[in-house]
Amino acid sequence: MRFLMLMLAMLLSSFVREEPAFPVFKVESNMDEGQYNNSQIHPMNNPVDRKKRMELIVKAFESVMNDKDFQKELLQQKFVYDVDDDPNKKLTTAEVAEKIYAAVESYTKEGYEPKVDNTANIYWDIKRRPHRPDGDHATLGYGFSGGYTIYTYSWYFRGKDIDERVGHLAHEWSHKLGFRHRSDFHKTRDETVPYAFGYLVRKHAKKYLPEE
Ligand SMILES: [Zn+2]
After folding, report:
1. How many A from CA of 175 to the centre of ligand 1?
2. Which of 92, 98, 108, 160 lies deepest, with the highest CB count within 10 Å?
3. How many angstroms does the Cα of residue 109 sit away from the middle of ligand 1?
4. Domain-wise residue ranges, the chain
């Protein structure tokens, strides 16, 4: 009897644990480590070190996307949409995850054909801005609607806690998939897809980064 119960429990748990399969995710990147060089001021102002750090961040992003624990938690997220006419509003969490993994970027670029390729195409450029501006919510970087490049300011890029930069990259890349949030700070902004996705990526990124 006990054995039967055990078998039943095992059968049930394998049934309940049936989760949507995530495709193997890849990240391809084209990185511009910046055009400036004044390595005397800060080690990260050296383009070689900057490039190494970019590569580390991009690799960690790819690893997190293929991490089973990350995937499980992604499916448990509840997302908030704070832009009124956001066409993503009706998506379920599973559909958001599916859209992220499909990785169809919506920018215009010569020779680029949007297609489901389970591959993040990252065009990343570090922009020189040596000092953090005043204020609580400093802008970390920027992007243009329909543009493919992710611009990150150097003062933020070189900061400690590389895992935070992995989350930043994930956040910015999610904009290329059409996920949005309001630019003003408000209570539930952290629950929009770009923020929640970025934070979750960051949470799992440490496993794939060397200790600082
Ligand atoms: Zn954003």
Report:
1. 7
2. 98
3. 21
4. 24-208
